[in-house]
Specification:
There is one protein chain. By secondary structure, the protein is mainly α. It has one domain (3-341). Helix content is 74%, strand content 0%. The chain contains 17 helices and no strands. Helix 3 crosses helix 16. It is globular, with a radius of gyration of 21 Å. The two termini are 23 Å apart.
Amino acid sequence: MEEQKFRNKITWFTFLFSMLVIWVHSYNAVLFLGGTKAAYQADYMERFLGNTVAQMAVPGFFLISSYLFFRTFTIERIWQKWNSRIRSILVPYIVWNFLYYIGYAAGSRIPVLSQIIGKGRIPFTINQAAGAVLHYTYNYVFWYLYQLILLVLFAPLIYFFIRRKITGILFLSGLFAAIYMGWNLPFVNLDAMFYYSFGGFAAIHAKEAAESVWSRKKFFLGIFLVIAALFLYKFDFPGEAKGEMAASAVIFRLFVPLSLWLAVPEKYLFPAEGYMSQNFFLYALHFAIVRLINKTGAFLLPSVPLIPLIIFLAMPAVCVCISYQISRLLRRFLPRIWYLLNGGR
């Protein structure tokens, strides 16, 4: 496909994944309704969308980030790649974590806001600020960015294994076997490394398949992967380690974004609108919006079961509208601040 259409499709998919990530962080039934039967019924519906359907967004982001990193990668370009990621990932990671800390610490000193925040009085200290920046204490959705920073740092090692097809397949198989057996790595999540390595492998060895013009063959392959993903969702692998990172769940979450990429024809995707192109800013800001709306709503609104569900379903659209309007103001009046917060995008 043409480069412009490829980039447009990337924007569409990152926008879709951003919308889904908002659902992952928008659970509110128990917050609104307490430990009631109605709360658990609403929570079940919310978690089906947020913890099953929307969880494909995380591997989707890792796949896209890795694919774009390794798409034009050579070992000679590693410093250039690292330098660009310092601006686009590391600096915003530090700035946003610090802003969240300042926001929570300041809000904890305002009587009404402190009740909504519910974290007590947060101290203003250098140690507290450093911990918040390094460990995303007040912005836990940045666990993804933390993992991405580490994976970018390990990119030369990953490239060493995936640059050749045979060693790449063996490396991916080894990562999957480790996930199957329930092993863990220090600092880096094994499933994150698996998704990231898979995306890099595809960029090096399957670029033609990933970027070729949409065809019926690609569509039916995508449908096959969807069916395989649904099968894996219902049936676990025998003997696999259980938990959030079960091998069957990892493959399910891998197959869904892959199937969508293959099945969706790029020629029917109109040029992405402005609100669809501020996905990093939306990702960084949405957690504050979600928490403020949910906690304020639980504090002020009546305990009616339908209210939290409506707010949950509407949250992606609400977050997109708010973040887009803020981004427009920043781009117009504070362009340097916008450049910093959005990682130079």
